[in-house]
Each structure stands twice: as structure tokens, then as C-alpha cells.
# Entry
Amino acid sequence: MKKIFKISLIVIGSIILVFIGLKIYNHINTPECIVEFRGETVQFASKDKVQITADVYKVNNTSTPWIILYHQGSYSRGEYHPIASELNTLGFNCIAIDQRSGNTINGIDNQTRIEASKLDKGTRYYHAYPDMEAGLQYVKDNFNPKTLLVWGSSYSASLVLILGKEYQTEIDGIIAFSPPALEYKEIQINEYAKSVKLPTFIAASSSEYEDAKTIYDLIQTSNKKIYAPETGGLHGSKSLWNCSEGNQDYWKELQSFLSQFKKP
# Structure
């Protein structure tokens, strides 16, 4: 009898592990979406001397708003290959940053992670924040944007809320796809959200909606929007890839938010 009970527990445990593994696989290892690269690759340094790689996608208009694009965990700036050209079409300049916490997506290796590893720098989520600050400074120094938005995916969606709090006089809006309840400098992201006063768009999958809504409710502005499909959806900015089911609905809601930043 005890043997049967033990076998039953092993079987149940295996089923649970497979289920968890599938959920992780669905979040991280979704099919890639390879498109032609139409940008320019640049490099610059973070405060701690890590060389950062980024892709710039420009519209030929000096008054065009800028969006800084930060990728999700295990990814690279390649997350935005299928997205940036569409943002150009909508009238936005973009720069997609490789943060040191990431890997490879859409055939693009995370060069900043490689450089950080050479210098024995940490590559966990919270180690990426200086790279995000460096991206912000690079855009300000090189393009002098009249309007500037920051956009994060998964862990970086939480970190852009911190940017929005700490650089609120230099940033005009925030876009956060699937922000998790991370901790940074021993402070929960929810505490940072309470100090965010900038226009904010939050997107999530249906299963992430409640957690995203908790963060959304804490943001201190009436100019905010949240979207999740009733069922399904994907984790992070890949929700917008043209190979992702339901991407048109995400684009529709995002465009509605972005319209306020476009110049007449």
C-alpha cells in the first residue's frame, strides 16, 4: 500500500513539473519571428564601463518622438526586430537596447551580456538597470528628443516604472508589457509605482491581468490605460509580433495610447 502511495506521489509530482515546465516554455521559448533588419547598430558605455549594443530605427524628421525599447529576460534587442519598423510607420523613432540580463532571440545574440560577462559583472535582472539609464542618456545626448517614451518587456517593464519615477522630468510616457512584481534595491516595484505620475500603458496576457492591474491601480495619473485579452495572450512585447496570435488587438490598444504623443 505504501509503495502504491509513493508511486502515486511520484506520478502526481511529475505531472506538476511538466505543467510548470510547459508554462515556462510558453513564456520564454515561443517560436521566433525573424524579419529583415532595417536599423543601424550603435554602441556606448554604461557607468560601470560595460559596452552596450543597441539598434536605432529612425524616421527622417527631427521632431519625431522617440521610444527606448528594453527587452525581456533571456532575450536581446532582437525582440524588437518585428516591432520597430511598425513603430516607425506610426511616426516614432526607436532604439532597442541590449541589457546585460538576457540572451538570444530572433537570431540576435545579446552583445551587452557577453561584454558584461567578460568584466565579471552580474547579469541578473536588477543588474540591467544601469544599462537602461545609459540608454536614456544616450538618446538625450545624441538625439535631443522633444518627446521621449520608455518601453519595457517583462522584468524591464517593471524597471521602466523605476525610470519613470526617477527621471519623470525627462520622460514623457511609459509602456510596460507584462510587468512582474520585482524588487529593486530592497523595494518592491509596487512602491515605485506609487510615485509614477507619467502617462502609462500596461499590457498583459489574460493570466497576468490581475497582477498587472495591481501595479496599474497604484500609478498616480488618470492618463493611464491597461489591456489584456479575455483569454490567451503572450508574455511581454512579443504579443505584438505579427506571428503572434491576437497581435492586432494589442496594436489597436497601443496605438490609441500612442496617439497623444504624435505631433500634428
Remarks:
- The mean pLDDT is 90.
